[in-house]
Amino acid sequence: MKQNLLGRMTPDCGSIWAEFDCENFGIFSMPIAVISDIHSNLDALQAVLADIDQRGVDQIICLGDVVGYGPEPAACLDLVIEQCSVCLMGNHDYAVLYEPCNFNIGAESACYWTRKKLEAEKDAVLRDRRWDFLGAMATKHVIQSDIARQGEMVFVHGSPRRPINEYVFPDDVCSNPGKLHLLFERFGRLCFVGHTHVPGVFFDTPDFYGTEELENEYPLSDSYKALINVGSIGQPRDRDNRASYVVVDEEKATFIRVPYDVDAVIKKMCAIGEIDEYLASRLRDGR
Ligand SMILES: [Fe+2]
Which of the ends of the chain has fewer CB neighbours closer than 10 A, N or C? Predict the structure, then answer.
């Protein structure tokens, strides 16, 4: 364990096996905002943080992928460092810090550009603070709640089995139901994930409900376990281009969408040669 710049004790995540041995635990007061997959999209992040603030929610857990794809990694890291109580490691954070694994050409190029951009920071204190923050990200956070509807709540980027890299897709319900059953053995009552950029709730029947079917609300239950995908702030892929996040209180998880100036972000991305134009244009349709 070591102390990071925020004074928090964090596990040493310096090995490739980090995803298997880093956890931290915490007690929180509700409500909590759960955000994920910011992907260096500062405009979307600022819009979401303003929305969270307006709702009077002051605990924010970030499920990772703060960087990658988008045009403003440093500013996004600075805001997350200042405003999030917990920030876990996503596969793009890992890729920028270590090496990209199984990335397509566009994602890989954006990853190397992000690393170059963070390294180019002239202020050594700022530069080191961002790298130290990336290096200190845990891969799993657990909250034990006295409320039966919440019980053990696990927070990861990908899945409770492989916190950094494993995708849990809605299609898995039909194509790989055994996978869902195994994943549900890995947490108590609730598990919060990001990574696919598609918000919704999985059950171990197995089944998946998108936010439209849920009417943007999942009432917590003391009978059912649920795996909740909070969607993406900076690269939504459910054909809704607004930033996505979740607020969880003692009764329910609420899915929230926040509009922002998508065209302004597309313009910034297209001005950077190393960022694939497809990553920019897909923001318009949220796909
Ligand atoms: Fe992501």
Answer: N
CA–centroid distance, residue 235 to ligand 1 (Å): 7
Spacing, Cα 197 to ligand 1 middle (Å)? 6
How far does the centroid of ligand 1 lie from the alpha carbon of residue 88, in Å? 12
Dist CA 9 CA 130 (whole Å): 17
What CATH number does domain 28-282 carry, 3.60.21.10, 3.20.20.70, 3.40.50.300, 3.40.50.1400? 3.60.21.10
CA of 135 to the centre of ligand 1 (A): 18
| Domain chopping of the chain, boundaries | 28-282
Number of neighbouring beta carbons within 10 Å of residue 212: 11
- Provide the residue-wise pLDDT of the chain in tens; the chain has 287 residues: 333 333 333 333 333 333 434 556 666 778 999 999 999 999 999 999 999 999 999 899 999 999 999 999 999 999 999 999 999 999 999 999 999 988 999 999 999 999 999 999 999 999 999 999 999 999 999 998 888 888 899 999 999 999 999 999 999 999 999 999 999 999 999 999 999 999 999 999 999 999 999 999 999 998 899 999 999 999 999 999 999 999 999 999 999 999 999 999 999 999 999 999 999 999 999 99
CA–centroid distance, residue 15 to ligand 1 (Å)? 21
> If you measure from the C-alpha of residue 148 to the centroid of ligand 1, how many angstroms do you get, rounded to a whole number?
31
Closest CA to 161 of 200, 191, 189, 197: 191
Helices 105-119 and 277-285 sit at what angle, rounded to 10 degrees?
A: 110
pTM as predicted: 0.91
For 58, phi and psi rounded to 5 degrees? Answer: -120, 5
CA distance 141 to 171: 26
Does residue 141 contact residue 88 with C-beta atoms inside 8 Å? yes
Q: How far is the CA of 38 from the centre of ligand 1 (A)?
A: 8
